[in-house]
Amino acid sequence: MTDPGISCSNCQACCCRLEVMLITETGVPERFIETDQWGGRTMARLDDGWCAALDRTTMSCSIYEKRPFICREFEMGGYECIEERTANEPIT
Fold first, then answer.
1. InterPro entries from the entry (predicted)?
2. Within a 10 A sphere around the Cβ of 17, how many other Cβ atoms?
């Protein structure tokens, strides 16, 4: 069950702080890929933890059409999305 009130346009890109393993070839540009010491490939992250492919001006994915499989499977408004949003809400 998804929450219809949630959309990527009203989010602060919470999912763009998660580690993203690249398990399939989607055409992600090499400049956004890091390879660990064991040969595992992940989306590169900047020093502050955000995905390197995140456009900071729009807070949207700059490679949306070529985003990794796991990003495609992350359901907007689904359980994991809501969990990430809740975990990243400021405490008042």
1. Puta_zinc/iron-chelating_dom (IPR005358)
2. 16
pTM above 0.85, yes or no: no
Q: Where are the beta strands (DSSP E) in 1-92?
A: 33-35, 41-43, 54-55, 60-61
Rounded distance, CA 9 to CA 11, Å?
A: 6
Would you write out the chain's pLDDT as a tens digit for each of its 92 residues? 566 666 666 666 777 788 899 988 889 999 999 999 999 999 999 998 889 999 988 888 899 899 998 888 877 777 777 787 777 665 55
Residue whose C-alpha is closest to residue 61's, from 24, 4, 17 = 17
The 10 Å CB-count burial string (b at 16+, else e) for 54-79 is beeeeeebbbeeebbebbeebeebee
Spatial neighbors of 59 by CB under 8 A, at least 6 apart, are 11, 12, 13
